[in-house]
Write the structure tokens for this entry.
Amino acid sequence: MILTALRHRSCPPWCIEAHTGERPRERAHHGWLHSIELSTHPKFANGELPQLWLDLVLTPRDDGPLVHLQLDDLPVAALTTREAERLGLRLIGLAAVAAMETPPAAA
Ligand SMILES: [Zn+2]
């Protein structure tokens, strides 16, 4: 498997970083990058919609993995995994309330 071959032995299983040219003290582990297109935001001049990017990161400075949120090139937040879980559950709850309790005329 290619990912296994690239992964350093100190990498968490979710790390996909090649770690070329890094010193061990500077090693930052990164997971798969996820994105969500933000359909209610104004489009860029090139016609593309802004993206919310999500990334799992672990650096030597961190006590544990952090979920980084970024709006295109702008960092928005770095959440602990517990904070990310709470945010995810609240987002699902809000979407469920909107889906179940919004009259059709207001949708
Ligand atoms: Zn790694």
The pocket of zinc ion is lined by residues 8, 11, 15, 17, 19, 29 (CB under 6 Å).
